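Section 5: illustrative case.
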């Protein structure tokens, strides 16, 4: 029992340290990326090249005055940002950082929660995100907050339907909901030259999933829940100091998780990048470390893509957002799922 507890504790610390520790780096990348795209200077005052600006922001949030407006429902108002961050962290327990390895005679899986239904667990845990947002909007007792929370929940639920059709199609293609099995099958090749990544097996599903994760994470061009021009700041308009920072962290953790799930399904997950195989041949023991580096590198590219899209595409109107989700993406997802099932059935017979 003690060994099992230590194993879970170590894995929990690792999976929490990586995304939470990377948030300052992502913030710096977003600010530098925004400045580069808009031909501005960007942060350059705190530390060399402004590299310590995220640390300055952390201290700012820590020492800002905690303001609790008199009109809020205090208990739920305080609980909401904590719940939002916890719901964002929950899917991390089912995401594999590398392949299972052996310690002595014992096979160890890198994820905290090991299940053959890995992809469904991660998706189900991700779907809990709207609860913290809705609670924040209601507890703030503010019309702008409530409207922002309702927008966010409606948006996330609408686009989850399109994402779910893609996940079911992927399940049929790989014949398993185990994320390790999906990564193993993507390590194969098509026609001897093309990697058997999900993006080549399910190009339509890949596009649907990509659009869906932007809506799920409330990022531009789908940040209607935080539309400053209409809603001031959306569901967290009444929040300040560390409570606001928790919502901020939850959004970035949500982006990291969705990006990790995306690259695991469509871009080989922790499968080695070109050139890493040579290192493994000379240092076989380095394979698990290189697999983790491979996955983190792919997720980093996705995080940059989030920044690129944010400063390149304008925000949708809310009616356009809902029409895209219900009248375009969902029908395409259902047709894609039907075609996938028919093709698999014909190939098996």
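Designed sequence:
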């Amino acid at each position: 029992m003690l060994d099992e507890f230590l194993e879970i504790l170590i894995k929990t610390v690792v999976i929490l340290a990586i995304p939470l520790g990377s948030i300052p780096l992502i913030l710096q990348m977003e600010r530098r990326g925004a400045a580069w795209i808009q031909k501005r200077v960007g942060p350059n005052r705190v530390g060399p090249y402004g590299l310590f600006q995220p640390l300055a922001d952390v201290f700012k949030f820590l020492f800002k005055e905690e303001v609790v407006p008199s009109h809020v429902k205090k208990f739920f108002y305080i609980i909401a940002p904590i719940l939002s961050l916890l719901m964002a962290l929950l899917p991390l327990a089912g995401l594999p950082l590398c392949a299972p390895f052996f310690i002595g005679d014992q096979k160890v899986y890198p994820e905290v929660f090991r299940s053959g239904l890995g992809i469904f667990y991660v998706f189900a845990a991700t779907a809990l995100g709207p609860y913290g947002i809705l609670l924040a909007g209601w507890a703030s007792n503010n019309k702008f907050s409530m409207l922002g929370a309702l927008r966010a929940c409606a948006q996330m639920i609408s686009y989850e339907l399109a994402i779910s059709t893609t996940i079911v199609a992927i399940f049929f293609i790989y014949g398993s909901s185990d994320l390790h099995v999906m990564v193993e099958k993507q390590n194969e090749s098509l026609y001897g030259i093309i990697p058997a990544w999900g993006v080549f097996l399910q190009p339509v599903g890949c596009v649907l999933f990509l659009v869906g994760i932007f809506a799920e994470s409330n990022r531009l061009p789908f940040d209607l829940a935080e539309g400053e021009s209409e809603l001031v700041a959306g569901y967290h308009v009444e929040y300040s100091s560390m409570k606001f920072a928790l919502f901020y962290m939850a959004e970035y953790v949500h982006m990291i998780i969705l990006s990790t799930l995306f690259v695991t399904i469509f871009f080989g997950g922790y499968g080695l990048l070109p050139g890493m195989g040579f290192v493994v041949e000379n240092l076989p023991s380095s394979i698990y470390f290189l697999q983790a580096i491979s996955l983190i590198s792919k997720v980093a590219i996705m995080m940059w893509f989030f920044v690129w899209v944010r400063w390149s595409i304008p925000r949708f109107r809310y009616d356009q957002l809902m029409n895209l989700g219900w009248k375009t993406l969902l029908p395409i997802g259902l047709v894609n799922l039907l075609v996938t099932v028919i093709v698999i059935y014909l190939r098996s017979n």
